[in-house]
């Protein structure tokens, strides 16, 4: 084999190796991975399924903590998976949860917030939908509430839509836009941490909260 031909073969081999490496990196970047510290709607679904099958006994709060990690390890051991305590695409498949390529980051929070807005403010003016999203985010920053979007939304008794089935209804397109605006910092509630509809409210206590602004059918309060 001539020297020129050897060089050509070597260059082709290097090019092939580089292409394989790039493909592997792309696949790794697009793979879902939920681990300790992740939060959002997919983490909630992971917890629900593990709890239903007897692997998990903690709270279904959408926050991937130590107890969720331990439950995932238990599930993985029982199902022939590498027990690393992290939920990648193989573990998602074993759980029956479709992979989305979105990972465990902020997109899950956006989906969860949009679902809450759609359930709580369906039929309200768009500004009122953004305000409902802002209330959730204001609670995340407030010391009296959980410090994550999933924690706030799944806090027991916080939102009636989780109890009356509205939370499971299809999410409106406007709710996604409202969630994005709220997460980008727009707050038409002016810092409110509560809101209620005076026509349907059954709590006397909520009327004691100082009114900040009224948008549509909702009173937003401090």
Describe this structure in words.
With 222 residues, the chain is mostly helical. It has helices at 3-30, 41-52, 66-78, 89-95, 106-121, 126-141, 149-153, 161-164, 173-183, and strands spanning 194-196, 211-215, 218-221. Strand 2 and strand 3 form a beta hairpin. It is elongated, with a radius of gyration of 23 Å. The N and C termini lie far apart (82 Å). The model is unreliable at 20-30 and 102-106 (pLDDT under 50).
Number of helices in the DSSP assignment = 9
The termini sit apart by 82 Å
Shape: elongated
Main sheet, how many strands, which sense, barrel?
3 strands, antiparallel
Indicate the percent of residues in helices.
40-55%
Computed Rg? 23 Å
**Topology, number of strands:** 3
Low-confidence parts, pLDDT < 50 over ≥5 residues?
20-30, 102-106
Which strand-content bin applies to the residues? Answer: 5-15%
Order of H and E elements: HHHHHHHHHEEE
- Mean pLDDT metric: 83
Strand order of the biggest β-sheet? 1-3-2
Overall SS class: mainly alpha
Quick structural summary:
The protein has helices spanning about 5-30, 40-50, 65-80, 90-95, 105-120, 125-140, 150-155, 160-165, 175-185, and strands at about 195, 210-215, 220. The protein has about 220 residues and is mainly alpha-helical.
Salient structural properties:
mainly alpha, 222 residues, elongated, 3-stranded antiparallel sheet, 9 helices
């Amino acid at each position: 084999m001539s020297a020129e031909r050897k060089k050509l073969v070597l260059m082709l081999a290097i090019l092939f190796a580089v292409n394989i490496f790039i493909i592997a990196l792309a696949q790794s970047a697009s793979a879902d991975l939920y681990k300790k510290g992740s939060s959002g709607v997919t983490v909630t679904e992971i917890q629900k399924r593990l709890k239903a099958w007897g692997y998990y006994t903690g709270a279904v709060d959408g926050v991937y903590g130590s107890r969720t990690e331990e439950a995932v390890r238990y599930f993985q051991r029982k199902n022939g998976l590498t027990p690393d305590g992290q939920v990648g695409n193989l573990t998602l498949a074993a759980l029956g949860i479709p992979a989305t390529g979105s990972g465990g980051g902020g997109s899950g929070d956006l989906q969860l917030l949009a679902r809450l807005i759609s359930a709580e403010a369906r039929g309200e003016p768009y500004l009122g939908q953004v305000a409902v999203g802002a209330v959730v985010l204001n609670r995340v920053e407030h010391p009296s509430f959980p410090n994550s979007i999933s924690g706030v939304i799944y806090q027991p008794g916080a939102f009636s839509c989780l109890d009356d089935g509205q939370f499971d209804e299809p999410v409106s397109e406007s709710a996604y836009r409202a969630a994005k605006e709220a997460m980008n910092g727009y707050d038409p509630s002016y810092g409110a941490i509560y809101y209620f509809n005076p026509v349907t409210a059954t709590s006397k206590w909520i009327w004691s909260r100082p009114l900040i602004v009224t948008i549509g059918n909702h009173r937003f309060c401090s």
